[in-house]
Amino acid sequence: MKILIVEDEFKLAQVLQQGLKEQGFVVEWAGDGSLGLELARGGDFDVVVLDVMLPGKNGFEVLCELRQSGSIVPVIMLTARNNVDDRVKGLDLGADDYLSKPFDFKELLARLRAILRRPKVELRTILRVADLELNVKSREVRRDGRPIELTPKEFGILEYLLSRKGLVLTKAMIMDHVWPSDADCQGGSNLVEVYVNHLRKKVDQDQAVKLIQTVRGSGYIIQERA
Fold first, then answer.
1. pTM higher than 0.70, yes or no?
2. pLDDT, greater one: 184 or 178
3. Using CB atoms within 10 A of its CB, is residue 70 exposed (0-12), middle (13-18) or buried (19+)?
4. DSSP letters of 30-91?
5. What is the CA 179 to chain-centroid distance, rounded?
6. How far apart are CA 12 and CA 99, in angstroms?
7. What letter would DSSP give residue 74?
8. N or C: fewer beta carbons within 10 Å in the chain?
9. What is the pLDDT, as a whole number, of residue 186?
């Protein structure tokens, strides 16, 4: 089994590497978020152990970009900030488990074993609603066969809506998913509104069926409705 540790605390990373190697795991280490994301995308890892507070990209950003790239590798997040909001944010972004520092190495092992016992799931490469389709791997979007060029943020919003087709997503949820490091910034709600409007122009303009719909007072939903 191959594990990636993304942790900037050198001593802790050393202890984890040594302990996991003694348990028979193959271990790689990254000391910052940017390198961690690069390795996670390119390596065939069974689990990623990801710290939240990292130089460069923080753990939330790494997780968000990893999921947006289509990766389904299990992720255990580590944090010294033991509060519910951080745990909820990590889980909403796609983390599989959460462990607060300081922790016992035996607990980490138990959580790793629990994740590794789960059956592996197949990634849905193509997300669809009506005549709109999004390819997670190639990052291509088409409507009625016509290619649509999207910015990375527009793609992230559309992928999030399609992956939760038929569910209402609030502006806060979209902000947390697409702009995790700026989720608490002033004007975040307006930023989501601006990008959704841009996305609508590209996806729904001149179409008889409007797929991206506003649920007044709640958020946005993508579904087919005449």
1. no
2. 178
3. middle
4. ESSHHHHHHHHHHS--SEEEEESS-SSS-HHHHHHHHHHTT----EEEEES---HHHHHHHH
5. 11
6. 14
7. -
8. C
9. 46
- The pair phi, psi for residue 16, each rounded to 5°, is -65, -45
Helix axes 59-68, 152-163, angle to 10 degrees: 70
Phi, psi of 186 (to 5 degrees): -65, 135
Please, what is the average pLDDT of the chain? 87
Instruction: Calculate the alpha carbon distances from 76 to 40, 162, 210 in Å.
Output: 13, 25, 38
Structure tokens at 83: 């509060």
Distance of alpha carbon 75 from alpha carbon 161, whole angstroms: 22
Asked whether the predicted pLDDT for residue 184 surpasses 70, the reply is no
Distance CA 30, CA 18 (A): 15
* Span 69-113, pLDDT tens digits: 777 889 999 987 666 777 777 788 888 898 988 899 999 999 999
For residue 220, give both structure tokens: 């946005």
User: What was the pLDDT predicted at 194?
Assistant: 93
User: How many angstroms separate the CA atoms of 205 and 197, rounded?
Assistant: 10
Token pair 């389709």 is at which residue?
Answer: 133
d(CA 215, CA 8): 42
**What residue type is assigned to position 191 of the chain?**
L
- Higher-pLDDT residue of 35, 224: 35
For 46-66, the pLDDT digits (tens) are: 999 999 999 989 999 999 888
In what helix (H) or strand (E) does residue 77 lie, and over which residues does it extend? strand 75-79
Concatenated DSSP letters for 114-143?
HHHHSPP-----EEEETTEEEETTTTEEEE
